[in-house]
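[Automated response] Your request has been received and processed.

Submitted sequence:
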Amino acid sequence: MKNKENTKRKLIWAVGEIIKMDGFESLSASKVARKAEVDRKLIGRYFGGLSQLIEAYVVENDYWMLFTDHIKEIIKSNSYSGSQELITSVLQNQFGYFYSEKDMQRLILWELTSNSPLMKSIHNARESMGQKFFELTDEHFKQTDVNFRAIGALLVGGIYYTVLHTIYNGGKFADLDISTEEGQKEILKAIGQIVGWAYKEAGDS
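Generated structure:
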């Protein structure tokens, strides 16, 4: 059992290393097996195939996938329904995670620029988790003219684009340098303000 787990870890590691060096498009079962120094047949035996191995890698690196179990527990307990603080914290943490995790950046870039059934499947899984997360806000915004799902979409999309634009094109974005601590603080502050304004508007409407 220990050898099996070690081999699985090697294979997942190999996927990440190949992506860092050559991008997602270069992944193949033989290349991953060579990098991991294991028999390629073990990819099928332990994961079911290359696509499932890539999915295992994605699950370990995608912010929303990592948050899956926590979201499920929150929904199950119903302890934080409509919590402004929770929503703000999750979105701010997403910004910090996405800015610091190069693998996640590569994943989103691949998703945006490829026509891959695998990436569509991963996107749908992430979208499903995002929907469950935003269900936490539905009760608070019910019967108001505030569509927090639309606001959330703009925030999440804005986080992705702002980070990717800065990382890959360099320089400032909207006169903000998010490579600096000051710039990052301003983004986090803005996320909190936008969520706060949405909750206030819903309360006033």
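Summary generated for your ticket: Residues 163 and 169 are 10 Å apart (CA to CA). Residues 117-141 form the longest helix (25 residues).
If you did not submit this request, please reply to this message.
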